[in-house]
Amino acid sequence: MLSKRIIACLDVRDGQVVKGINFEGLRSAGDPGELARRYNREGIDELVILDITATIESRRALAATIHAVARELFIPLAVGGGIHTEADAAAAVDAGADKVSLNTAPLSNPALITTLASRYGSQAVIVAIDAKRDGDRFAVYSRSGTTAASRDAVEWAREAESRGAGEILLTSIDRDGTKAGFDCEMTAAVSHAVSIPVIASGGAGGLDDFVDVFTKGAADAALAASIFHYAETSVRSLKQYLKQHGIPVRI
Amino acid sequence: MTAASIALIDYGAGNLTSVKKALAAIGARVFVPASPGALDGAGAIIVPGVGHFDATRALDRAWIDAILERVGEGRPLLGICLGMQWLFEGSDEAPDVPGLGVLSGQCRRLRVPPEGHEGTKTRRRSGHENGPEARLKIPHVGWNSIDRTRDASILEGVAPGAQVYFTHSYIAPLTGDTVASTEHGEVFASVVERGQIAGVQFHPEKSAETGLKILRNFVSSV
Fold first, then answer.
1. What's the ipTM?
2. Nearest to B21 among A96, A220, A246 (CB)
3. Each residue of A15-60: pLDDT tens digit?
4. Three-class SS of residue B70?
5. Where are the domains of chain B?
6. Which ranges of A58-173 would DSSP assign to H, the alpha helix?
7. From the list A72, A192, A215, which residue is nearest B131 (CB)?
């Protein structure tokens, strides 16, 4: 039976892992290589490295960080942040990324999804959708949550799938860093609208938040950052809790 | 290149970086042959790959003959993911592209129960465990267990029920060559072995310690 995946996200700036609240107010959480090794020991299923300043400050994905992590860890590694062109994606893949995560670029250039899916396969292309509640809809934002994209998250996820995306990484801007729980309603709306896996992100606080997002939210994977970085919750204890609650996990 | 080095076949289906890194980590010597003629000195052959079966079209007659010649000499051959499917006769994904044909059977698309269908074992089980929202998706992406159906050298030392990382929509059929199977809506061949030929539907290079163990088993047969 297919396991629900637990994914750790390393938001990297200037070679250090940082984490903020609602996409702002960053604080340092340590060295990316060191954190990646710890999570791997604890049984993390996958890692995402996001160069969080890349979009705003035109930084390129940190090839050295990717290379250091990919050399010694043999689990799927996704890289995002500042991937605007086929060349940016190639740099990430050449450094050792298995998947690239696209956020801002495909909103203005959706053909990039198809280009990268043709070159590397759909399994290598994640479309990351940052969304915020707007009445009973979910509005998409770009540029690290600063710019409204005038798109609906459900509709954009469907389009991304049809253009060749292999997975959707769905982040609730409202919940990001708040530890108030995942936005299960938004996750379920997107997960039911597409046949590709949906990774839920934003708001992980307690163990029950993960149970909820895998049941009520119909998520295929859940991503968290702060709760793992500051060792509030170990990956291993989270997985044991999920197993006790009947959620299939890899232990 | 030495007699004991492993030829990693690059036919443009995905990137080889991860496979190379995993093989380097277990101390294997690897080279990427530029042409079929360069396979002469290969101690073993790995056919990796992800994506559409049509990509295997790049493995033309010259490549097929060179690979079959090495296999005929008893050199070990490992197919990974799409590379495993290519070991069979063909795939419904690209019906006009023949496979290598060293294993019998045709690959086809994975079938999962339609949404709302309550009649299968998987559906009932996931429905019970995950509530009414659970349903199976294609592609099959993530960690799933491999259940051994018979002893095989490629799986030596791999714990029963060990989980490995999959990402695919097409499957190889269950045949006498199946040595482990996996369930996602239906049961399919996840590891095959026939003599010195082996194949894995998942990505050992992305399957943590279990994956490295499987690669070590293959490399130790070289």
1. 0.92
2. A96
3. 788 875 556 665 666 788 888 998 999 999 999 998 877 544 435 4
4. helix
5. 6-220
6. 63-72, 86-95, 105-108, 111-120, 153-162
7. A215
